[in-house]
Amino acid sequence: MSQLEDLLAKITARSATVGVIGLGYVGLPLALLFEESGFPVIGFDIDPTKPEALNRGESYIKHIGPERVADAFARGPRPGQLVVPTRIC
């Protein structure tokens, strides 16, 4: 199986891990959509307050309620798991 075929198979099976860099007004909704679709997601942000808030189940974006964030973290560890490390390095 080629690398492309392997990747397509993982996408179809929703087992490909999605990485989202930056969890602001674009990144957080994107990460949540992928997680809600069943993909494992790793989100990164250089602002340590964002991962800390998300890991507590809180939202810092008006149109995204805390219930949606809490639900995303409650579903882990698969099929859709949202992981947001508090330290990158």
What structural class do you assign from the helix and strand content?
alpha/beta
- Average residue pLDDT: 87
* End-to-end Cα distance: 34 Å
Question: What proportion strand?
Answer: 5-15%
**Nearest-angstrom radius of gyration?**
13 Å
Percent of residues in helices comes to 40-55%
Notable features of this structure?
single chain; 89 residues; alpha/beta; three-stranded parallel β-sheet; 3 strands; elongated
Question: Could you characterize what this model shows?
Answer:
The protein has 89 residues and is α/β, with parallel strands linked by helices. It has a single domain (3-83), classed as NAD(P)-binding Rossmann-like Domain (Rossmann fold), CATH 3.40.50.720. The chain is 40% helix and 11% strand. It is built from 4 helices and 3 strands. It has helices spanning 3-12, 27-36, 49-55, 66-74, and strands at residues 18-21, 41-44, 82-83. A 3-stranded parallel β-sheet has the order 1-2-3, with helices on one face. The radius of gyration is 13 Å and the shape is elongated. The protein starts with a helix and ends in a 6-residue tail after the last strand.
Could you give a short description of this structure?
The chain is an alpha/beta fold and 89 residues long. It has helices spanning 3-12, 27-36, 49-55, 66-74, and strands at residues 18-21, 41-44, 82-83.
